[in-house]
Amino acid sequence: MLRLYSTIHSFISAWRDDPREKGACLGQRYEVQEILGEGSYGITYKCLDYTTGKEVAVKQARPSKGDYAVKLLFQEAEIISELQHPDIPAFIDFFKEKGRSYLVMSYMEGDTLEDLIFGQGIKYDEKQTVLITLQLLHLVKYVHKQGYVHLDLRIPNVLFHGGRLLLIDFGLARKIGTAPLLPKSSFFARLSAQRRSSTGKVANEQADLYDIGHFMLFMLYSTYEVAEMEMEMNPHTPHTEQSWQEELRLSADVKLIIERLLENEQPFHRSDELITALEAMIFT
Ligand SMILES: Nc1ncnc2c1ncn2[C@@H]1O[C@H](COP(=O)(O)OP(=O)(O)OP(=O)(O)O)[C@@H](O)[C@H]1O
After folding, report:
1. Rg of the Cα atoms in the chain
2. Which residues does the annotation say bind ATP (predicted)?
3. Pairing with 244, which of 25, 58, 168, 260 sits 20 to 30 Å away (CA)?
């Protein structure tokens, strides 16, 4: 019975969320050019803004996720409208049409770090990782200074365009010190939203710094090949799982910084502190 309900529910959700097609006109102003991505709560399109002739990114709240998706989208709109930085999407418009809600923001051209690492096979050594993390941190520091935390600092949300680093997807961002928005619906929906919104705790700068620890590891793992070579040379020897400290050959300084980011000992409390520590490594 539960299975039948779940099948019918997924079918109805897919039908309600059917994305708008190429050429469709949204809000009598934005022509859909392509779908950029479909997340759990939103569908994002690249559109042409007829009034300016510019490309824009338009995010639609998933109809099947009801009021909660609309609230999240509205929260994202409020936050990006408070952030005015050339390397962060600018707020352009928020509108409702035929019962659907849309957020319009500037389109950020570039390749995500995820594409660069996994699609184009680019490798980042320790020095490059530190320099890129510093670029990201200067943006994160700006966001924190405005009173917000991003809470989704991951390689798919960081773009590169001509050497410039851009930060997108403020869908989980929150005002510092606030609790996450939770749906009023079922216990399970609340639980999954709580998990999604970074442990469901009150938002603080340290949550972003923790994500930066993982961000650095993703970049550093781009150079990691030892395990594959070992497997080729000794295919019958069972491969034992190792920690990142064992797998990556890192300098003591970088290792300590990542440990401080990911573990509870000697944590960094603010982005400034981390910037100082990384700059000391690079410039001394
Ligand atoms: N302002 C923007 N400029 C260019 N591309 C964007 C912009 N905003 C989002 N995108 C792209 O659209 C896609 C989906 O966007 P986004 O990550 O914001 O959606 P989401 O619903 O939050 O998805 P997820 O749940 O996977 O995080 C991503 O591929 C992202 O690169």
Report:
1. 21
2. 59
3. 168
| Average pLDDT, 10 consecutive residues per value, the chain (284 residues) | 54 65 95 94 96 97 92 96 97 96 97 96 96 97 97 97 95 92 66 56 89 96 74 63 90 95 90 96 80
Distance CA 168, CA 42 (A): 14
Query: Considering the entire predicted model, what is its pTM?
Result: 0.86
Interface predicted TM-score (ipTM): 0.93
Domain boundaries, the chain: 12-106, 111-283
Per CATH, the homologous superfamily of domain 111-283 is: Transferase(Phosphotransferase) domain 1 (1.10.510.10)
- The CATH architecture annotation of domain 12-106 reads 2-Layer Sandwich (3.30)
57 C-alpha to ligand 1 centroid (Å): 8
CB under 6 Å to ligand 1: residues? 36-37, 39-42, 44, 57, 89, 105, 107-108, 112, 168-169, 171
Nearest CA to ligand 1 atom 24: 39
DSSP 178: P
